[in-house]
Specification:
Shape: elongated
Strand content: over 45%
Strand order of the largest sheet: 21-22-19-23-31-27-26-25-29
Amino acid sequence: MRMKPVCIKRGVVLPFLCLALVASWAALPPARASAAGYSPWSGGHDASGVTETSCTWYFAEGCTREGFDTWLCVLNPQEAVANLEISFLTPRGNEFQRSVPVSPLSRYTLNVAEVVGTGQDVSMVVRSDLPVVAERPVYFNYRANRSGGHDASGVTKASCTWYFAEGCTREGFDTWLCVLNPQEAVANLEISFLTPRGNEFQRSVPVSPLSRYTLNVAEVVGTGQDVSMVVRSDLPVVAERPVYFNYRSPNPSGSYAVAESEGMALASPVRYADTTGIMFHEASRYDIHDQPANPRVMFPLGGCVGDANPGARYPGWELQDSGDPYYWVQESRGRGTFSTTAVDVGAKAGCAVLAPVDGVVERVEPYSLYGSYPDQRVSIMPDGRADLRVVVVHLEATVTAGTRVRAGITELGRVRRLSQFFVSDLGRYYTGEEGDHVHMQVNLAP
């Protein structure tokens, strides 16, 4: 999966423009703007126009994987038909082609998946017998908490050198490098990754003729880095640097990160719009089978509005105040675990409960809460972490064991109405509501 630079501003309402414009007003560059309302995905993008047409346009980036729609838009400003030859280059080579006549003074639009199918990483080369203008809009929903759109004009010339000042592998950021080799021979890349400490990382890569190369930058530099890149090639190529991010603010219409634990990001099991409150507290030492749970500490994300249990805080860790989502830390329950080893996320009964991590459901079990109230427990083995189990309780489960789940996307079930039996501490002390909620914690695997 890859991702693209996107500028999204909440609350912006703009017309969704499906026109290619050629304009000039008071010497200001024209721009193309699109905004919220694409499928279930929100966001917006804006791109300056180009000042010259061309017979060749290159696009290194393009994706038709799940959650991505890539389009090609071509403007023919000529008084005659423009005949296009479009090549679609995947990591395997020049696999797909399409010939298209574009009428005079008209716009041509293509859903790239109609040609290459779904599940593809794809670059494009657009050649025309008359000068035209081409752009590549992409609309996406990446891991449920990074949705939006971006748009870019192609470049008209390949180059042996490409510079990228920006790049980030901090929490919430995924930076990728996409390189299109339009040549009939192998292009040998030398990539330098520059951090504040200098030219720390390098990678040499051969890119096959007429193909696309994709790199997750974190695979080279690791996480937590601010990084620039210099791409040098012995043959002219085209490079782009996609970045997808969830920067500090949650997605009101979807999931959001609520904590980190054992190097994993934990998505809230409740959508942002459904959340009534968030309370971290001490987890029990034992699971529903009276076996040691070995709960792992969670590091809350967002802003702490009150810590009633500072004595049980994880040593050396300070509560953060980075804004929404806001949370409380409950007073001690006398369980002898750290104060943030469990989290209750409040929501009305019947609201959707979402998977907090990518992984596979290991167990779905009924049990009696406090020995008296019917409840269910879902245990998920996270991808790449067979030593851990992410446990979600207080729901009416709809998944079954063996189900593959995606963080913030796959529905595990619905919030159980426990308020018919008792008012939880979340409701009694913090939200003042019924107190229905989903409980989540991370345990060592049994």
